[in-house]
Design a protein that fits this description.
21% helix; DUF6932; 20% strand; alpha+beta
Amino acid sequence: MRVIYINGSFTTAKSDPGDFDACYDNETADADYLRINAPRLFNHHDRAALKARYKGEVYPSNQPVGNYGENSFEFFQTDRDKNKKGIIAIDLMRWEP
């Protein structure tokens, strides 16, 4: 996985954000490696546990979102009124904590 995209109140000016949403480019990710090395973080079938433990959810970028006709990557880039908005992209190959 090279890039992860961050969305949700974590990316706003809120002083105490409630959650985050993230998606990753599944074409550059080794899904088997992620499931083995970070099973709790990449368990897309138990979203409640993921949100309870990490205060957010992580999706593959091509995963459809509800009945919106968009994938996660597209959905994250619009607000509730369908206005375009930005998201945060973190290049994990270059990022240093």
